[in-house]
């Protein structure tokens, strides 16, 4: 199928009549996923959104349920979001991150109704990256600028138009409904060429890293890695795969709600026990946790690395602590 | 800059070789264009990695609190102001710190530079002293450093370190105090100010990069992290809670903020935090004639009381 760029705004506006349409929107110089009513609001020429796509299915703060107490007792209201949603224009790294997060929220021990309900009701239109940034290394991370895994529809920008491919059944059904023209053989060839030739190779090699990390818990490497880290959550909050959360009750008088908030292993409160003991009491233990979780524990548990190479942690770290360098240093260790 | 880099390396190597210090905290080349990164040199060989450039933006005083060993630091004017404040607050033992002062002509702001190239990706940058040459995939652009300096650097009056054990490089001319940005903000109506703050706070993701980057923010438990009682909602979607966090953070810096701008630099969301901190710096200066970290003698502004202190803001 082919979508001319000048038709995009109209198509999105029309879809927004029926679905909740979420697209990248530029505001104050920052591109973020945002619900749109008017298709012209969508900004599809972005390198990547500031906050990762995970926030659509796993919001930074989510009211799980609310309650009120009155003379008759306690009334509880679950807040499961059931809106039919289309996410239009998510980069392949972010789409891949959702595939990874599925493991966390749907496994043999736990099924998260909030995440999974949204997931089931959300259709994802992935958008390939013609010009990956210098900080991107998705090609090194079982992903890539044109990786289609997880997308329901996949778009390839060929200049004046997007070549649209229906990947899943529901993606194909939506494409059929839009009544688009077919891509010509020439357009398809151009898309194929872009898909085959565009790479985001940051020179990151994680072959053998999981095994190596497995034997490194007590290694002196961890003594200095964290030294310049300030202990903020810019890296984890802006990471598409970081998924640790904390649950808090927020209540005033007889009304309250239980809120799930993103947590970050960089914080002193992370894994702090009620007793006051913290198994990760300092920057060293927290940084070890961050790298181990992504490149060892997650691999052990789900057979995949919890990093998609989007480069957000590199771009946004206030002290330029570069995860690519950390991985290279680990590789170089005897 | 090249010359300063050489001087810094020589000084650091000497201090480490003679075992006068165990550690030199400075900057090394970063992994991205226009980035340097804090660096910890423990051997004369490691001191070869130290650099000085217009991108040494972090406030290194952050790494100096409560250290056991003897430490030297490569410190620009604002780092030294923070060090002075921390010495007064008992966080740094002056005798264990060797300050290698570096006069600072101002650091350059990547956000302004990115805006100057309309967000296009910068793949290489070089500094000829007064200008930065930026190169990308299909563009080249030269920007004057003066035009892309951090706001806090443009109005810095203490760019020459106020105390040091050794000063490298030439002193630079201090700038004029200029609170035009704050005066413009003060001139707005209550409604306009409220709307502006709400807009800025709506961007906050509560990553606490501002708090962590601030050399003067070192409470062992921040009030936002406290659960019993929970002084503040933990979710980032409440603009009021985000504003409360910032308000308390800034009030806690009353008379202590050294106006280094580290909070705003660290913010990944581009929130104009210095508007709040600088408003208070200006107020403290006007109301009490006090400035934080400008000498070792003045007591911290909030540690003193005089009968003639202004109190017309009290209820």
TrEMBL record, chain A:
<keyword id="KW-0408">Iron</keyword>
<dbReference type="InterPro" id="IPR017896">
    <property type="entry name" value="4Fe4S_Fe-S-bd"/>
</dbReference>
<dbReference type="GO" id="GO:0051536">
    <property type="term" value="F:iron-sulfur cluster binding"/>
</dbReference>
<dbReference type="GO" id="GO:0046872">
    <property type="term" value="F:metal ion binding"/>
</dbReference>
<feature type="domain" description="4Fe-4S ferredoxin-type">
    <location>
        <begin position="218"/>
        <end position="250"/>
    </location>
</feature>
<keyword id="KW-0479">Metal-binding</keyword>
<feature type="domain" description="4Fe-4S ferredoxin-type">
    <location>
        <begin position="298"/>
        <end position="326"/>
    </location>
</feature>
<dbReference type="Pfam" id="PF17179">
    <property type="entry name" value="Fer4_22"/>
</dbReference>
<keyword id="KW-0411">Iron-sulfur</keyword>
<dbReference type="InterPro" id="IPR017900">
    <property type="entry name" value="4Fe4S_Fe_S_CS"/>
</dbReference>
<protein>
    <submittedName>
        <fullName>4Fe-4S ferredoxin</fullName>
    </submittedName>
</protein>
TrEMBL record, chain B:
<feature type="domain" description="4Fe-4S ferredoxin-type">
    <location>
        <begin position="248"/>
        <end position="278"/>
    </location>
</feature>
<dbReference type="InterPro" id="IPR017900">
    <property type="entry name" value="4Fe4S_Fe_S_CS"/>
</dbReference>
<feature type="domain" description="4Fe-4S ferredoxin-type">
    <location>
        <begin position="193"/>
        <end position="215"/>
    </location>
</feature>
<dbReference type="InterPro" id="IPR009051">
    <property type="entry name" value="Helical_ferredxn"/>
</dbReference>
<keyword id="KW-0411">Iron-sulfur</keyword>
<protein>
    <submittedName>
        <fullName>4Fe-4S ferredoxin</fullName>
    </submittedName>
</protein>
<dbReference type="GO" id="GO:0051536">
    <property type="term" value="F:iron-sulfur cluster binding"/>
</dbReference>
<keyword id="KW-0408">Iron</keyword>
<keyword id="KW-0479">Metal-binding</keyword>
<dbReference type="GO" id="GO:0046872">
    <property type="term" value="F:metal ion binding"/>
</dbReference>
<dbReference type="Pfam" id="PF13187">
    <property type="entry name" value="Fer4_9"/>
</dbReference>
<dbReference type="InterPro" id="IPR017896">
    <property type="entry name" value="4Fe4S_Fe-S-bd"/>
</dbReference>
